[in-house]
Amino acid sequence: MVFMKKFTAGSNETGVRLSRFVESVTKELPRSMMYKAFRNKRIKVNGKKAEPDTRLQQGDVIELYINDEFFPEIPAGRAPKPPRRQPPVKVIYEEESFAVLYKPAHLLCHSDRTGDTNLVDVFAAQLEAQGQYDPHAENRFAPALCNRLDRGTEGLVLAAKTYQALRDLNTIIRDDLMKKEYLTITVGAPPAGRHVAWLQHSEKNNKVRIHAHESEGYKKIITDVTVIRQNGPFALCRIGLITGRTHQIRAHLAYLGHPVLGDIKYGNRKMNERTGFTTQALCAQRLTFGRIPEENSLHHLSGKVIKLEDPQIVHRFDALTKE
User: Fold this and answer.
1) Residue 206: other Cβ atoms inside 10 A
2) Alpha-carbon Rg of the chain, whole angstroms?
3) Over the stretch 230-256, which tens digit does the pLDDT of each residue have?
4) How many CB atoms within 10 Å of residue 60?
């Protein structure tokens, strides 16, 4: 039976394609049937026929004349499930639309086949407990991460709380308007300065290879290295990513002959065993925003620096050098 369902676009729907919105509020609706509904004027915005690629604005009224069976049932009187109890996420910086989170080593950014706890789900649960996010009322958008770190890497991760923030943060990252800097402990001191090489990623074993010269199938990488302190066989370094390829820091430093301590994929096995490091000593410690265009809702971040104060990796380095 055909019913009319009415929705009002909120701030999280600003800029969302109408076809994507329809898919999010329906269940098991065949795409062919959805596009037929568009053609037959059974999907309207503000009382008028709308196209699938229409971009919604806050306050738009969406009317869907679609069979009731394609809408999820909401049992009357059923209370939403309480959020799962998880260790709290450490928030380094926060605004209404986004936050910068601290990801400890070993915590996944997103869910995978193991089903282990992951950062984005814990953050969503935390926002839900604080009343900032209602997955039942705002089922068109869920908190999302804008960048990711390897499981063994700790540090700063950007998390969007609205669709517009997700879109604008992704634009900042895509247009290289944010500089990422890492701290790492290396075996020996790598040569300071800017290093250029070419990298190829193998999906089969999730490992990369480095060439000194441009080669077919390889992508250019640029890595800045500053040695902060050196003591004995270890060095504490600041790494600036000019390009951001898979495993770039770990593989590039290993190629230079000074791998990241604790790296089991590209590192020095003997040094890892000697120190007891079982995961790479690598921390995404600082984010510096460049000049962001005024049309971007996060323009006010221009020139802002967000950093992790007193990072644990420095204490780990100090402990190493005292041995």
Assistant:
1) 11
2) 24
3) 988 999 999 999 998 989 999 999 999
4) 19
